[in-house]
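Appendix C: a fully annotated inverse folding record. The material below is reproduced so that readers can follow the format used throughout the book. The structure is listed first as tokens, followed by the designed sequence.
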């Protein structure tokens, strides 16, 4: 979570503006943050992900796992009390990835809940930027890691097809809900940090893996902020993204009207 020269400059400016403004919290600790990670058959990514995430010192890490391989066993074997796994067996995987994220929200007890994928395309280090932005004086409820704001990049999208699907999906939901989403540059991001008390998960109706869109459309009065990040290349496994998601996105946008 391949920076261009322009992106390097943007991130430098961002850190100069926000990096030291949170008085008393100048270290990198993800204080009072639970990181929720939905996984499905990500056994090769568990160890590399935790090796990068745990040094950031989150309060808790909750994997919500829908795997049919050894992913939940590998997570359970990890010797750190902050790491837990909720394994949803076949037949109990309600709502897909979005439902998994909701299960993680319900299990969290911290002020903030962050969401990242288990495939390392959302670099764990981005969570530091989200946390720093979340603690600024304008007091946002939801901070979104954006590929489409200045300094962000979608370079990790693995094919022209995925780039087209991502851009088309973003354009589609912004067109259908342009008033609600006018200040959100990446409403389909899978990496974000949310003030837990601001969302009632019982009102969410997750479908597919774009849970952020459901949150944005179902929660009134959310104060949002964007932070640029670099969508990284997938190292192991395969993406679940496809054009069927466009149908789900349109359904979500229209249903929430």
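Designed amino acids, in order:
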């Amino acid at each position: 979570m391949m920076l261009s020269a322009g992106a390097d400059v943007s991130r430098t400016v961002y850190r100069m503006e926000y990096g030291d403004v949170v008085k008393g919290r100048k270290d990198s600790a993800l204080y009072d943050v639970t990181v929720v990670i939905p996984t499905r058959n990500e056994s090769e990514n568990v160890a590399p992900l935790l090796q990068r995430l745990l040094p950031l010192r989150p309060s808790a890490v909750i994997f919500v796992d829908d795997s049919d391989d050894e992913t939940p066993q590998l997570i359970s074997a990890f010797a750190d009390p902050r790491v837990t796994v909720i394994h949803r067996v076949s037949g109990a995987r309600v709502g897909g990835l979005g439902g998994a994220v909701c299960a993680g929200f319900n299990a969290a007890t911290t002020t903030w809940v962050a969401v990242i994928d288990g495939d390392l395309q959302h670099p764990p280090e981005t969570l530091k930027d989200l946390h720093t932005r979340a603690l600024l004086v304008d007091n946002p409820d939801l901070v979104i890691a954006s590929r489409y704001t200045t300094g962000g990049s979608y370079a990790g999208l693995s094919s022209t097809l995925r780039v087209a699907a991502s851009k088309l999906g973003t354009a589609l939901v912004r067109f259908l809900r342009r008033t609600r989403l006018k200040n959100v540059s990446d409403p389909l991001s899978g990496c974000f940090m949310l003030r837990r008390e601001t969302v009632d998960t019982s009102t969410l109706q997750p479908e597919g893996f774009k849970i952020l869109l459901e949150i944005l459309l179902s929660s009134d009065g959310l104060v949002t902020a964007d932070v640029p990040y670099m969508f990284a290349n997938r190292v192991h496994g395969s993406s679940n993204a496809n054009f069927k998601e466009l149908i789900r996105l349109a359904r979500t946008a229209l249903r929430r009207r």
